Prior knowledge:
With 268 residues, this protein is an all-alpha fold. It has helices at 5-17, 22-33, 80-93, 97-108, 114-122, 127-139, 143-150, 158-171, 183-199, 205-212, 220-239, 249-256, and strands at 49-52, 76-79. Helix 3 packs across helix 8, helix 7 (143-150) crosses helix 11 and helix 9 runs antiparallel to helix 10 (205-212). The model has no long low-confidence stretch (mean pLDDT 96).
Amino acid sequence: MGFDQGDADRLDEVMLAQPVSPHGVASLTAWFLDPDRGGRYAAGVGAHAVSYRPGAWARVEPWPEALGDRGEAGRREVSRAEVVAVAREAASHGDWRAALVAAHVWGYGGTGFGRFRTERVLAQPGVAEALEKAVASLRAGEVADAYEVLAPVRHYGPAFFTKFLYFAGAAVEAPERPLILDSVLAATARAHATAAGEAAGVANAASTAAFVWRDGGWTSHRYGVFLAWLRRGTDVLTAEGFGWPPEPDLLELAIFAGGWDGSSAPAP
């Protein structure tokens, strides 16, 4: 059976009407109240850090000085707050390539292929101009336009350019804040949309969810649905009264960290 836009629209309606299942609320509450898990981010996700080796990023330019001396051995950490600081510095002079590098260092962490993939993106013609244009769209509150500006850049899929948008959006205090969408977040959206759609009697819920929430290649429309889903989910969690903060990037982090897998009931 082929894809039906009507089924997709109905599935989105159902998913956004109940953005987090009761089991999801319970799971995310437990994650947040655990001081070794979500409790660390009760004041915000700025402290969320990853480990990397500066020396593994030799030859990548422009290199943000805040990320350390690449001639030194060993590892260090970079937090979300530190990447935002790099992006603010980029905003001061209008060259966003260093912010892209910082977002990639944070995103790739200790993997061994981040340098090569980052160099490949930076080598694309017009990438600096595309980054600047995307940020201009963010400043204007046009997140979908920013997404579409970066989508055509070769070797730069949405799992990473939404990281750039997220940090750049925070740096310029964009009216509508972007969030990170990758295959882990999409898998949770897929599971929740399937469960919610089947419970509501949406035709072809599982196959439609599998298509629209696939592992990559999302449209700007799908990204908009994703943003709405996390914002509405955040509203549900803050209304529970256990202290969940109103910033939706905590829900993005919680899902990525395994706080909820999208299921509607505990596993048997």
